Every structure is written in structure tokens, then in C-alpha cells.
Amino acid sequence: MRDRYLDSLRAAAIVRVIVYHAFPVAWLGYAFPAMGVMFGIGGSLMAHSLDRSNGAPDRVLASRLRRLLPAFWALGAVVVPAMLWAGWPDRPHWPKLLLWLAPVAQPPGNAWAVPATEVLWYIVTYLWFVLLSPILLWVYRRWPLRTVLVPLALVLMVGDSGVVSDLATFGACWIVGFAHRDGALRRMATPLLAALAAGCVAAGVAWVVLLSPGSYDLNEIPPAQALYSLGFVLVLLRVSPRLTWRPFVRVVSAVNSRAVTIYLWHNPAIAMCFVVGDAVGAWRLGGVGYLAVALALLLVPLLALGWIEDVAARRRPRLLPWDGGGRAPAKQPQNVSGG
To answer: Structural domain boundaries of the chain?
Structure first.
């Protein structure tokens, strides 16, 4: 049974990512640190799947990769030929192009395709977290506190160095997802959890103010991002409100059923919205008009390629990501944290 609250957090995170890329203002990262939340959710769901695997983590890994990679391959099937057609003077040798099949590092691209490739760091990082989760979960259950602290220490040492930095930045959030699934967050005294969360948030802000002059964007400051996101995730994964309003549940379900496609294609849609928006007079409405055009453009890959996520999840392929109308929403789980 799906957890509506986690689905709602993921949907909110995706919306925040779209808004940030359309209006790249630093305060959005403080209002809702979307990537940390997404990794926290991922850690919780991964722990849940591993616990249900009956000692067969390979089946869990295969299932997660099946859910993640086909939508990514669909993007590559469009973007790679388009880059070759547009001209790719610094095209790497073919072995590196295999990263478009197995994204264990940033897939290569040219300047023309930056809107499509610059967001792929999340796919790379998520893939590594999935692959590492069986051993990470084993380590966490033996040394929980140290397992959370190690990524925070690592992010101070590695700097901004690609996938290692991304794993360190969001590693604590992923592992706190394990704690959510084990019920450790729910068992923690509320004053203690609130103090820890407030301390992490304050430390992240202090890092920005005192140690990163000239930049206030958390995305550009990995240690601050790690601390601030961890504080938010501690709080968001502690609570578990009941969500039963049917229209809201249906929208959340639709977004989650197309989450990978939305994430992969939203930035190209935003990049194209200015050309298309100028042609249709979106400038009359300012930034909101261009955002509306971007969302309209995003419908194209959603309708053309969104069904791939249905097939990957072994659902009946659907043009529209809505559940069948008229059905009452499933009963909300009484305790999703396991505590």
C-alpha cells in the first residue's frame, strides 16, 4: 500500500524543483529543500523494500532500476541523436557514451543539451544510493548515529566533486529515511528531535552567512545544504498526517506515477518556454506566463513517454496518469513509520 504522505512530499518536492528552475531564487531552497526531501523519501522506501525482500536484495535492486532507468533511456533516445544532429565537436569516445545506458557518472552532453543534462546528477546519485543501500542499511542498524554522521563529515572533506560530493551531501537524508522506516524518529522524544532539527537548520544557515560570503544559494554550498536539508527531513519524516481529500490524493497519485518523466523533462520545457512564450505573447503575464507555457510544453513528453513509467512499474499503460474515476481512496495506513 502506498504511503500518501510520502507521495505528497515527493509531489511537493517536484513542484518546488520546477519553480526553482523557472525562478532561480535562493530563498526557495530555504523554504523547502526539495532534493534532501526526495532523498529522505527514497531512503525510507528503499529500507521498506529491502525488509520485505526475504533476504533477496538483488530483486529489490532490479525492481528499483527497472523503475528508474527506462524513463532515463527514453530521454537519451531523444537527446543523444539531437546532440549529434546539432553538432557535438567535443563528443567523447563511445565508451563514455555508455553512461547514457548505465548512469554511474554524469552522462556526457554538449552545450546545446545543458537543460537536459544538468539535472541528471540526481539520477546518478539516486542510482548509487540504491546500489549501496543493502550495505548501508546493514551498517546503519549496527551503528545508527555514526552512519548518519559519516556523510556530514565526508562532505566537509570532498568539496564539490561530482557524484562523491552529492552522495555526501544527501547521504544523511537517505539514512534518516532508514530511521523513519524503522520507527526510530517516532520513538525519539519530540523536544530532542526538535532541538536536533533546529540545530541542523541553524548550522546550515550559519555556514552560509559566516563561511560562504557572496553566495546564499544552498545548491552552491554542499555543507550548508547537507545540514539544512537534514534538519528539514528530520521533521518532515517524523510527522504522518492523514490525507483523505480525494481530489488532492488523485493529483498526488498522478504526479507520482510520472515523477521521473516530469523531473527529466521539466528543465528542457523551461528552456524552450521563452522562445515559444515570446511567440504567443506570454511576456504579457511576466514570469507566470512563461511558466504556464513551460507546463504546457511539459505535457508533450508526459503524453508521449509517460506510459513508460507504467510499463516499468508493471501497470497497465495509460495515456493520462489518473486512476480510474469514482473509486474511493484506499485506507490510510495507521502507522507508516514502523514504530
So the answer is: 27-245
